[in-house]
Amino acid sequence: EIVLTQSPATLSLSPGERATLSCRASQSVSNYLAWYQQKPGQAPRLLIYDVSNRATGIPARFSGSASGTDFTLTISSLEPEDFAVYYCQQRYNWPLTFGGGTKVEIK
Amino acid sequence: EVQLVESGGGLVQPGGSLRLSCVASEFTFNSYSMNWVRQAPGKGLEWVSHIHSDSSLIYYADSVRGRFTISRDNAKNSLYLQMNSLRADDTAVYYCARRQITAGTMNGAFDIWGQGTMVTVSS
Questions:
Q1: Of A10, A86, A100, B116, whose Cβ has the fewest other Cβ atoms within 10 Å?
Q2: Contacts with A50 from chain B: Cβ below 8 Å
Q3: Could you tell me if A36 lies within 8 Å of chain B, comparing CB atoms?
Q4: What are the angstrom distances between the C-alpha of A29 and each of A4, B46, B106?
Q5: What residues of A are in contact with residue B95 (Cβ under 8 Å)?
Q6: Chain B residues lying within 8 Å of A6, measured CB to CB
Q7: Distance, CA of B28 to CA of B44 (rounded, Å)
Q8: Residue pair B113/A45 in contact by the 8 Å Cβ criterion
Q9: Chain B interface includes A30 (CB < 8 A)
């Protein structure tokens, strides 16, 4: 099973600041990595697929990148609606797995 | 609007059974692979099961294999999860999710999610 380790667990930032979220895979997942945003009481929403492709309707302030088995989600300037939990997920191998999540909270 | 709506959750005793349903609308259901993903209270996301568009390929997480059965009825635009021998650690919100179709794959990321249905296993 491919383990995805997200860091930090919690990120305390102010609106307008840049957020950098990390996801490390225990082995290669090629470029088959996605990012999701989840707000309390809501279903997850797809943000980024295949490392760096924004899903439909996702603002340009969200971007994804990779270096080997290390993946990064960057939010260039936090908007009030961006405070949420973010999960990475791999589809390279069965079972599909998610990271443990990073909570982006208001400082 | 493209939509997935789950139903069938509820309170069940340990060892009991429950059948979840997910109805799709406003997209060509029979073209898409579908999955179930769950989330225990206060916890992260856990993938449960996958079914190909024509039911030809099915996968399960180890935690549910042998107890849960995924199925679909393309004529009814519906996805199902039959859950047997339920345990306390199956307590979660269960989401159905569509697998994205992109260049080169029918098994992309989860691009459409339902609102979820809560399953509570307790005596």
A1: A10
A2: 102, 108-109
A3: yes
A4: 10, 18, 17
A5: 43-44
A6: none
A7: 30
A8: yes
A9: no
Question: For residue A11, what pLDDT is reported?
Answer: 98
Residues 6+ apart with CB under 8 A from B95: A43, A44, B6, B36, B37, B38, B39, B113, B114, B115, B116
Tell whether A49 lies on the interface with B, counting CB pairs under 8 A: yes
Residue B105 has pLDDT above 90, yes or no: no
Locate the chain B residue with the closest alpha carbon to A40: B42
Mind listing the pLDDT tens digit for each residue in A50-77? 999 999 999 999 999 999 999 999 999 9
Chain A residue numbers touching B50 (CB-CB < 8 A)? 94, 96
Q: How many Cβ atoms are within 10 Å of A40's Cβ, its own excluded?
A: 6
Report the b/e string of B95-120 with b at 16+ CB within 10 A: bbbbbbbeeeeebbbbbbbbebbebe
Q: What burial letters (b/e) apply to B21-49, b meaning 16+ CB within 10 Å?
A: bbbbeeeebeebbbbbbbbeeeeebbbbb
Residues B12-71 pLDDT 10s:
999 999 999 999 999 999 999 999 999 999 999 999 999 999 999 999 999 999 999 999
How is residue A24 written in tokens?
């490390």
User: What is the structure's pLDDT at A70?
Assistant: 98
